[in-house]
Design brief:
The complex is a heterodimer.
Chain A (H helix, E strand, L loop, with lengths): L1 H4 L10 H5 L4 H13 L16 H9 L4 H4 L3 E5 L4 E5 L6 E5 L1 H4 L12 E5 L1 H4 L2 H13 L4 H13 L11 E4 L16 E7 L15 E6 L4 E7 L11
Helix pairs in contact in A: 8-9
Chain B lengths: L2 H8 L5 H5 L27 H9 L4 H4 L3 E6 L2 E6 L6 E5 L18 E5 L1 H6 L1 H12 L4 H13 L10 E5 L16 E6 L16 E5 L18 E6 L13
Parallel strand pairs in B: 1-3
Antiparallel strand pairs in B: 1-2, 3-4, 4-5, 5-6, 6-8, 7-8
Classes of the chains: A alpha+beta, B alpha+beta.
């Protein structure tokens, strides 16, 4: 599996905080054990990845960020072939509910229960989100994780997918959702996206550092994670 | 008081967190201008070893142990410890706040800060320039003009991507207000407005200020400076790993 070759355990955007965070090593071990068992070897029927209640999916997507941000954000919902615009926004932010292809540890690539809300800012919508939507389309088309990884790497090499824009970041502060069987819910956090940046540049993953990060040289993507003290509704998260 | 009200009244990069945790106003003589002029320079200086220790306390030891440390002298900052990881730790003084900040000349401010390599290369030169000119006795107007000239001549660098600073010291004194301190990270971006990160909105964990000014009314030339926003995210632990108060 390519992502293991780059030294990460399961560097998908949402696995990062838990897998790398020393406070969650126990959970990480569970994640690795789950990964070894490959509990979801194949794609489930497409319907299992969809949410039948579009209003519920919109609400869950918006819950990733405080209402002051999410209420004016564009919202995408998952259709049979990929994400579709359900609500036009006006502040540049875009909110979605990620599925297992993009939002869970590698072993749960096909886990149909994964629902992870995120709101990306405009810079990330023009860069990072394009990868998420592309991976999702490939997943819905039944491509394996290896095929998906190869397709994304090729698209980046051909510049069909852009580098990360300066200031690309996202909110993941929802109380809702399901991160997967190994890590059912992610701590409230922010993520920051860079191309080809050494995690050490931010002091990430060092003892006592509040910053966690993973770098994928194939995707030329470095993701930094910073936990925050509140959920999107303002209630305390620690 | 809403966050936006707080934002418009107080904000500076150093005092931001303390403002949010303020429980009572400062007992200042004049709330508008508690520190109208520079204090005697001695009041801004520290014991060298204590300053090195305070500077390093801004970040976890895993970072600051190998960082360079600079300390303040009568004429500016000088390197006290040569590091090897590209980070630079220092103790900012009140004048590193915006030029129109009411605590600009507060001699009690001791803002421990560790800058990552991109910030050390691109933010620190501005701090050096500002500090040296002010300690040499130049007025704020003169300092602003000199910095603008240096920017125009490209003697000062453009801000790099990925600039981060750690301000997680338990021992900083950031402001006269409230608890005086709070652990946080700062990110420097050349964005023209705060909305890019959803900062300063209700329940947003991201706060933002203009690096140069609060209102720029007193120093209108600052409006012609390159845009530079400071984004701030509060973290839940001090650099020594102990939990910080919830903000």
């Amino acid at each position: 599996m390519r992502k293991k070759k780059v030294g990460a355990i399961a560097i998908k955007s949402f696995a990062l905080l838990v897998v790398l965070g020393t406070a969650y090593l126990g959970t990480a071990n569970q994640a690795m054990a789950q990964e070894a068992k490959t509990p979801y070897p194949n794609m489930a029927p497409v319907d299992q990845y969809l949410m039948t209640d579009q209003a519920a999916e919109i609400a869950m997507a918006r819950s990733a960020a405080p209402e002051s941000i999410a209420r004016d954000a564009e919202v995408l919902v998952l259709g049979r072939h990929g994400f579709e615009t359900a609500v036009k926004g006006k502040n540049g932010f875009v909110c979605i509910v990620g599925r297992g292809w993009t939002s869970a540890p590698d072993a749960e690539f096909w886990n149909p229960k994964v629902r992870v809300p995120m709101c990306v800012n405009a810079a990330a919508a023009r860069s990072y989100l394009l990868r998420i939507t592309k991976i999702t389309e490939l997943g819905l088309a039944g491509r394996t994780q290896t095929q998906t990884d190869e397709a994304i790497a090729a698209a980046i090499a051909k510049k069909e997918l852009p580098a990360m824009e300066s200031g690309a970041m996202c909110y993941m502060m929802s109380k809702q959702g399901y991160g997967g069987d190994a890590i059912p819910h992610w701590p409230s956090h922010l993520m920051f996206f860079f191309s080809d940046t050494d995690p050490a540049t931010w002091g990430a993953n060092l003892p006592g550092s509040p910053v966690f990060a993973g770098a994928d040289p194939v995707e030329h993507l470095t993701q930094f994670v910073v936990a925050v003290q509140q959920w999107s509704d303002g209630t305390e998260a620690r | 008081m809403t966050r936006n009200q707080i934002h418009s009244i107080f904000l500076s990069a150093f005092v931001l967190v303390a403002v949010l945790i303020a429980t009572r106003p400062a007992a200042a003589q004049d709330p508008q201008q508690p520190y109208p002029t520079m204090a005697p320079v001695e009041q801004y200086l520290m014991d060298r070893d204590a300053e090195i220790a305070l500077a390093r306390s801004a970040a976890p030891d895993a970072i600051s142990h190998d960082a360079s440390v600079i300390v303040l002298t009568r004429h500016g900052y000088e390197t006290a410890v040569q590091g090897k990881n590209g980070w630079v730790c220092w103790v900012g003084r009140g004048w590193m706040a915006m030029f129109d900040h009411p605590e600009f000349w507060n001699p009690k401010v001791r803002a421990a800060d560790c800058l990552n390599p991109p910030a050390a290369r691109s933010i620190l030169p501005y701090a050096y320039k500002r500090t040296e000119l002010l300690l040499a006795g130049h007025s704020k107007q003169e300092v602003i003009a000199a910095i603008k000239a240096a920017i125009d001549k490209k003697e000062l660098p453009t801000i790099e991507q990925g600039t981060v600073s750690y301000m997680m010291s338990k021992s900083s004194y950031l402001t006269d207000n409230g608890g005086h301190n709070g652990p946080h990270l700062m990110f420097f971006q050349t964005d023209k407005n705060d909305t890019a990160w959803g900062a300063n909105l209700t329940n947003s964990p991201v706060l933002a200020v203009n690096y140069w000014y609060i209102s720029a009314q007193s120093y209108p030339q600052l409006k012609s400076f390159p845009p530079l926003s400071v984004f701030l995210v509060v973290v839940d632990k001090w650099s020594d790993g102990t939990p910080a108060p919830s903000m």
